[in-house]
Fold this sequence. Notes:
This protein is of the alpha+beta class and 280 residues long. It folds into 2 domains: 4-128, N-terminal domain of MutM-like DNA repair proteins; 146-271, Helicase, Ruva Protein, domain 3 (Orthogonal Bundle). 23% of the residues lie in helices and 24% in strands. The chain is built from 6 helices and 12 strands. The chain has helices at residues 4-18, 41-45, 146-153, 160-165, 175-185, 198-217, and strands spanning 23-28, 50-56, 59-64, 68-73, 79-84, 95-101, 105-110, 117-122, 249-250, 254-258, 260-264, 267-271. The strands form 4 sheets. It has a 4-stranded antiparallel beta sheet. A 4-stranded antiparallel beta sheet has the order 2-3-4-8. Strands 9-10 form a two-stranded antiparallel sheet. Helix 1 packs across helix 6 (198-217). The mean pLDDT is 93.
Amino acid sequence: MPELPEVETVMRGFRDAFEGQRISRVSVNRPDLRWPFPLDLREKLEGRTVLSFHRRAKYILMRVEGGWTMMLHLGMSGRLLLGRAGQNTTPPRHEHLVLETENGARAGLVDPRRFGMVDLVHTAEETDHRLLAGLGIEPLEPRLDGALLSELLAGRRTPIKTALLDQKLIVGLGNIYVCEALFRCGIHPERPAATITAQDAENLVKAIRSILNEAIAAGGSSLRDYVQADGTKGSFQNLHLVYGREGETCLTCGEAGRITRITQAGRSTFFCPSCQIRPD
């Protein structure tokens, strides 16, 4: 599933092409994805100018005049591909939603597994939407610091890897960037969250923020289905130090450590047992 850097990259491409433009056509090519498309999606979007974009966790919010917001989640394998309307080309397979603007911009939502979703919400009520209301803090928000992270982790017996994936605490983080952040801080993924010290928490916040910004600058990590809105792959996967490198030599400690993979809460975790010492 795309994580925060991938969703942010897609959102920025969508914004650059659609912000300030009037939507001229909305085509819904099937009744549902994970849930049914809103029946009034075309009515609420066609003929309206796109005012702004926002990302909340892994959701893309497109706000249009008239007080409506289209909320989009890419699911496991969804792609939002940008192009030009009116070109004599065959639409991609599994393209379920198409938006076009008066100036010729085209956005197609391609989702083979149909785990994504599209919904409409009053812009003034975005934060109350059932999928957004219980979400935690954005990791790139300035108010997330070591003290706040320590407060969020206090008393939690779950492993730190699992705690950082909890979207009710911090949003947008997934396997890739949590593994990379824990490695940079030398923290073993099985260490109980409550044992993270104030200094550890400060280091984690800095590592998470740095890694996310680096990944956004690189267009995200393309491992399976993810591509940027223009169809090109991201490149941050080439900078992974542990994720997906099981059995390979650690790039930090060399032959002293080999990248190991374990399963936590049904998900793969990658780490270096030499750089990230297992807790007693």
